[in-house]
Amino acid sequence: MNDHVRTRFAPAPSGSLHVGNVRTGLFSWLWARHNGGAFILRVEDTDASRVTEEAVHGVIESLRWLGIEWEEGPDVGGPHQPYRQSQRSLVYREQVDRLLTRGDAYPCYCTPEELEERRQLSLAQGRAPGYDGRCRNLTAEEREAFERQGRAAAIRFRMPDEEQSVHDLVKGEVRWAPGQLQDFVLMRSDGTPTFLLAVAVDDMLMGVTHVVRGDDLLTAAPRNARVIEALGGTPPAYAHVPQVNGPDGRPLSKRHGSTSIESFREQGFLPEALMNYLALLGWSKDERTTFLTKQELIGSFDLDRVSSNPAAFDVQKLEWMNNHYIQRLDDDDLAARCLHFLSEAGVLPDLSVLRRAMPLVKERMKRLTESVELLRFLFTDDVTPNEQAGELIARAPEGYLSTAADRLERVEPWSEEAIHRALDEVATAAGLNRTKGWQPIRAAVTGSNVSPPLPGSLELLGREATVARLRKAATRAG
RNA sequence: GCCCCCAUCGUCUAGCGGCCUAGGAUUUCGCCCUUUCAAGGCGGCGGCACGGGUUCGAAUCCCGUUGGGGGCACCA
Fold it and tell me: Which residues of A are catalytic?
């Protein structure tokens, strides 16, 4: 345990937070918690044009819902405020000035057009397309000349001309040959900081000890580290975790449909199930542990056991896990969660009945949204039979449903057991087994060929509605 | 084009030189249970990308090939 561990999650809230990003954030958070350290939420909005206020709120909402909390962030404040890069311009200006005076950074007067032109040329000649270092060693006179031309300078970092390496906690030792990592822009010519500057400065100033992020940022690590060192700080340890892929094995993106945390919530997934599933995407406790509570995850999470190869997101396994968690929720809790989806669908349940219906449906739902179709018949008299139900009703023996109605009308008491016996009597009298005998009744009462167990369902529905629906179907059956 | 990362059942993974005729989970298939649908139980199919090494011995180490991904922006 190391209570000095400080990690952060720094999403750029331009779009929605998808499960891949969050999986990475989850690892970062788990590492902080595992070490009894602190977790920071920071908004990476150096390119302010792409960020909306709703997006920032969305990020906060999604993380909260999942069960991730932070000690410092834009909403809760903290000793290193502000936590939005768009509000830290002065800080970046100050740090970039230090780099400038030390000669670790320099003004670059090349225009985007010139850079693009040279980039194309390099590519055509088979050389690296990056920055060629044109303004690296400008004399004072040359600078003045550019200034007189009215050129605005971007500020570039002077990358040491030597081999670069990072010791990554997941990838191991990674090296880049001298010249491979070119001088990059720290501050745009309009004075706004780039991601590369902001991240280095913030991680340093906020005392971040471990940077856990997607491995698409692996080449940013040596740049981040060199900037921090040039500023006199100690770079954090880096852990670059693989990206999460879609079911087709390609990186998760819009193309894969709704992959935002918000959409999983709307689809009826439990946050505890999603967290458990996500934690197992690229990490494992051992060879058999599948279910871990939040506390257990915190207790056993270790960057050492994070896999270095990308994982594909498998909804089916998530669904299976979701069902597992649903089954283990207590009835009040589950009912409260289903209520949201029922009312969303326009079904307004009697709360007491809803609660008592939970034992009947909990092992039948992969998603909470399924509670709507499973339980609708309990809360509405509109039970127009679906196609299969219609057939079941039509194929019922002559007078069968009326007989069932008659018999159920006399059931005493109106209990699951008594109803069960009555249903059997009706079926037996008609020479039918349970399957054949109960299905028409199920169809008539629930409007579907599939429903929760019949006796329990009828008990909850009540005698009156049950009998009425049977009679109505009987007339329709002719 | 150059650089970097990755490679075990369809999917998530265990495996860090002998315990592996490769284990678990999910998916799928079959059986059992059963009032429908599920859940549950039992069982089956299914994998070390390929080629070279190193070693008494390789899924495990090294090299190469192939494949996938990422980077080379005044995006993040």
Answer: 254
Distances in whole angstroms, Cα of residue A327 to Cα of each of A40, A362, A363, A377: 34, 5, 5, 22
Instruction: Name the one residue in this structure whose structure tokens are 């990674």.
Output: A174
Strand pairing partners for A349? none
User: Which residue, among A336, A342, A352, A398, has the nearest Cα to A373 in the 3D structure?
Assistant: A342
Can you tell me the distance from the alpha carbon of A218 to that of A24, in angstroms, rounded to the nearest whole number? 14
Helices A351-361 + A370-379 axis angle, to 10: 130
Say how far apart CA A281 and CA A288 lie, in whole Å: 14
pTM (predicted TM-score) = 0.95
ipTM: 0.96
Do you find a cis peptide bond into A193, omega within 30 degrees of 0?
no
**pLDDT under 70: residue ranges of chain A:** 1-3, 15, 47-51, 126, 477-478
What is the spatial distance, in angstroms and rounded to an integer, between the CA atom of A224 and the C1' atom of B52? 40
What are the residue ranges of helices labelled H in A133-183? 140-148
121-160 of chain A touching strand B, CB 7 A cut-off: 123, 126, 128-131, 152-154
Q: Determine contact, residues A67/A272, Cβ cutoff 8 Å.
A: yes
Rounded Cα distance between A315 and A94, Å, is: 47
Which nucleotide's C1' is closest to A109 (Cα)? Answer: B74
Q: How many CB atoms lie within 10 A of CB A258?
A: 12
pLDDT in tens, A10-45: 998 776 789 999 999 999 999 999 999 999 999 998
Minimum-distance nucleotide, CA of A125 to C1': B1
A336 residue type, one letter:
A
Distance CA A418, CA A45 (A): 65
